[in-house]
Every structure is written in C-alpha cells, then in structure tokens.
C-alpha cells in the first residue's frame, strides 16, 4: 500500500509539473493552446457566414460611389447607422489616414463592428465568433475587385494585450491627443468601460449629445505636450453637431452619439470576458484531461484545481454582466442620433414589457442593470461547466445570498426585476432559479 501510494504521489507531482510547464508556456500564447487554436480552428461568426453566402452567389453587395461597400455591408449585417461613433485618435493600423478632419467611423451591433475611413482602401471588421471570441477581417473598397471578406490578424497588434483580457478582443481607449490626433504616449491614457468615470472617457473621440455639467475628454486636444492633461476643452461639452469641425457629408451621419459610446464601452468589456471565460474553461478542462491520462484517474487535487480555475474565470464575468462598480451618472445623458431610442426598443420582453435593452441614462446606463449580452450566441456557447457557475453566482446576487459591496447599487427591486425578466426571456436557466431559497 505504501509503495502504491508513493508511486501515485510521484506520478501526481510529475504530472503537475508537466501541466505547470505547459500552462506557463501557453499563458502568453493562449491562441496556440490545443484547446483554443485561434488561428486554425473553424469559425462560424456572422462575417464568415456572409462571406460564404457571397461565395455561393446567394447574396450580392451593391457598391456606393461615395462609401464603397459600407452601406450594403451595414444592411447585410443588420448594423444601424445610428450606432456611428467617430474617433480622430491615430490608434488604428490605418492610423496615417486618421485625423480630426478625417475621423474613423465605427458602426456596431451586438456581435459585429465595422471601421470606415473615407477614401481608405479597406473596411475593418470585428466579429464575435461563438467559440473563438473576436475575429478580425478586412474588405477591399476597390470596386473592380469582387467583394471578399478576408480574415486579417494584423489587428492583433493592438487587439491582443492586457486591455483585451490577454486574448484577441475589443478595446475602447481614451487618449491625450495632439491637434493632429497623435496620442501623447508618455501621458498614457485609459481603457474605458462602464466602470470608468466620465472624466476619463473619450479622449481622441468626437462626442455628440448632452450631459449637463459632467465632463469628459472628448472633442478636445492637448495643445501643450508638456501638460497634456490641460486639454483644450472650450468647445468640448454638450455638442449637438460636428458640422463645423470637419466635412460630415463624408460620413453616413453627422453624429458620434454619446449613448452609442456608452453602450459599446460596456459591450467591449463583456465580450472580452465571455471569451476569456470560455478560453480559460476549455484550457482547464484540457489540462484536467491531461492529468487524468497521466494518472489514470481523476484525483481530488486535480478536480479542485479545475474548479478553482473555472471559478476564477466566472467571477469577473458575473460582475460585468450585473454591472458591478458601474460609474454613477450625476446628470442625464441624451444622444443625438436616435440610437438610444432604437436600442431601447430591442430585445425579448417579459409580460410587463420590460427588456434588458432598455437604457436609463439618467443615473446609470441600463434601466435593469444586467447585460443584454447574456442573450448572445457567445454566451450560450460557453462550456456547460462555466455556464453553471455563472448562473449559480448570478442567482446568489439576485436573491441576496451574495452581499458583496460590489453589488450594493443593485436595489431589492432591481434584483427582483432582473430575475423576473430573465425567467421570462432566458429559456436555459437552471430549475432552481424559480425557487426562493438556495437548493
């Protein structure tokens, strides 16, 4: 018995060392992990699906003399023009083309975004694949070339780092821009989402809409590189139109809507965390299987380690879904493009007409603080092991079992409303969600 136990102990240590070395080697290269294979594994996102339809001749894109393939692409992917936001910061791989007089436009919906620069050679696309996370594409604006959307990993130079959860992802940056849009790199900046105070948001972006006395970094420039924080903000606040700042007729709309900016910031964080949760869980399960193969059995140590890794990926996702640590608005926000009104009409609704897409924009972003991305294909495609964890932890918050201060802004009525909406609109909830006491 002693010899058998000793042998098992030695094998356990050896297997743990093997997994540890493999874990360390892949920590900085998640994309190549056997459970991920970001560049090799097949994808099924909406842009990939569109390209398949184009290749089969099932759909054709109509070329626009001014905007190229953009209007047809927006229609094919169901992206509203009201989502247009504009950045003049030179942060794209087409940075040389971007300036305050020629900003880069971004149009988006829940699962895909398109970047457009007037007269640029390429459209940039980022689509959320249900399994692989964010996948990047480009489309030539040359009318002479049959439209073909190509996967392009050039974007990973800026879209795979700590700001994107260390995987290919989305990011909204707030910079200190010089008058030509060049970031003052030594001044740093901010990666912004729903937790960021408005005072740190939208440096290098145009912003249209009203926000009262609240301040942000948009519509402004750092004219003194020695004191970049002293932005020239004379005409920065409560801006209704951009027509006097550049030629807005070069774009599909004259706006860079403040409500759209708010939503896409939230969306980038949750999208990245969904992908991170999926990748981490798949890696944990893969490493567990390696241990089982090495030892011939599932040990308590391996099982506990796997659960810890899944829980570690679960917790930040639950916090983001329920908007923990959301920055408080001190005055109402109102956009200019109609984005907020159209967005609030979307989504599945319960019998009382309530939807997680309904915006508040008076004291917080959503009327019912739970992310609409809980309905996304990427969320539904998460491994069952982490979905179980997310549902359990969310249930604990909504039923008052989790008393963390991070969720203190969720009132009892908020929690009840969110739970009721989800019970009416999310079909795969565990049965215990309909109970009062935790089973």
Number of strands: 9
- Uncertain runs are 1-28
What overall geometry do the principal axes of the alpha carbons give?
globular
The gyration radius over C-alpha positions equals 23 Å
Contiguous helical run count: 10
Question: Order of strands across the biggest sheet?
Answer: 6-5-4-3-2-1-9
**CA(first)-CA(last) distance:** 40 Å
Q: Please tell me the overall pLDDT.
A: 91
Structure notes:
This protein has 439 residues and is of the alpha+beta class. It contains 10 helices and 9 strands. It has helices at 2-27, 46-56, 70-76, 156-159, 258-295, 300-321, 339-344, 377-380, 384-398, 412-425, and strands at residues 85-87, 104-108, 112-116, 122-129, 133-140, 150-151, 173-175, 189-191, 205-206. The strands form 2 sheets. The protein has a 7-stranded antiparallel β-sheet, sandwiched between helices. Strand 4 (122-129) and strand 5 (133-140) form a beta hairpin. Helix 1 (2-27) packs antiparallel against helix 5 (258-295), helix 5 (258-295) runs antiparallel to helix 6 (300-321) and helix 6 (300-321) crosses helix 9 (384-398).
List the helices and strands and how they pair.
Elements: H1 2-27, H2 46-56, H3 70-76, E1 85-87, E2 104-108, E3 112-116, E4 122-129, E5 133-140, E6 150-151, H4 156-159, E7 173-175, E8 189-191, E9 205-206, H5 258-295, H6 300-321, H7 339-344, H8 377-380, H9 384-398, H10 412-425
Antiparallel strand pairs: 1-2, 1-9, 2-3, 3-4, 4-5, 5-6, 7-8
Helix pairs in contact: 1-5, 5-6, 6-9
């Amino acid at each position: 018995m002693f010899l058998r136990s000793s042998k098992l102990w030695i094998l356990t240590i050896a297997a743990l060392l093997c997994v540890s070395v493999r874990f360390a080697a892949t920590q900085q290269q998640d994309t190549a992990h056997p459970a991920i294979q970001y560049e090799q594994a097949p994808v099924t996102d909406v842009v990939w699906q569109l390209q398949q339809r184009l290749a089969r001749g099932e759909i054709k894109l109509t070329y626009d003399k001014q905007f190229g393939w953009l209007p047809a692409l927006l229609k094919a992917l169901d992206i509203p023009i009201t989502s247009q936001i504009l950045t003049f910061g030179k942060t794209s791989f087409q940075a040389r083309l971007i300036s305050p007089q020629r900003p880069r436009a971004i149009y988006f919906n829940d699962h895909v975004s398109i970047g457009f620069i007037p007269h640029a050679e390429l459209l940039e696309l980022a689509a959320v694949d249900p399994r692989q996370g964010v996948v990047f594409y480009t489309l030539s604006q040359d009318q002479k070339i049959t439209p073909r959307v190509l996967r392009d990993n050039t974007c990973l130079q800026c879209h795979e780092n700590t700001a994107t959860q260390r995987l290919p992802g989305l990011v909204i940056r707030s910079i200190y821009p010089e008058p030509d849009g060049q970031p003052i790199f030594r001044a740093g900046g901010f990666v912004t989402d729903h937790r960021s105070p408005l005072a740190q948001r939208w440096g290098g972006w145009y912003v249209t809409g009203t926000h009262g006395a609240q301040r942000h970094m948009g519509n402004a420039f750092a004219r003194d590189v020695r004191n970049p924080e002293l932005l020239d903000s004379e005409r920065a606040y409560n801006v209704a139109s951009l027509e006097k700042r550049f030629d807005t007729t070069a774009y599909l709309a004259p706006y860079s809507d403040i409500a759209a900016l708010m939503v896409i910031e939230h969306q980038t964080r949750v999208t990245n965390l969904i992908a991170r949760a999926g990748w981490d869980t798949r890696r944990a399960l893969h490493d567990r299987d390696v241990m089982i193969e090495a030892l011939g059995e599932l040990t308590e140590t391996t099982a506990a380690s796997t659960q810890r890794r899944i829980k570690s990926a679960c917790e930040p996702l639950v916090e983001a879904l329920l908007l923990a640590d959301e920055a408080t608005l001190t005055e109402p926000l109102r956009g200019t493009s109609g984005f907020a009104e159209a967005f609030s009409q979307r989504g599945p609704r319960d019998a009382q007409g309530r939807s997680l897409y309904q915006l508040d924009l008076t004291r917080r972003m959503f009327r019912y603080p739970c992310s609409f991305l809980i309905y996304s294909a990427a969320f539904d495609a998460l491994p069952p092991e982490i979905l179980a964890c997310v549902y359990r932890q969310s249930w604990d918050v909504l039923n008052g079992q989790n008393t963390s201060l991070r969720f203190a802004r969720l009132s009892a009525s908020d929690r009840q409303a969110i739970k009721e909406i989800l019970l009416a609109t999310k079909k795969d909830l565990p049965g215990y969600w309909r109970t009062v006491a935790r089973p």
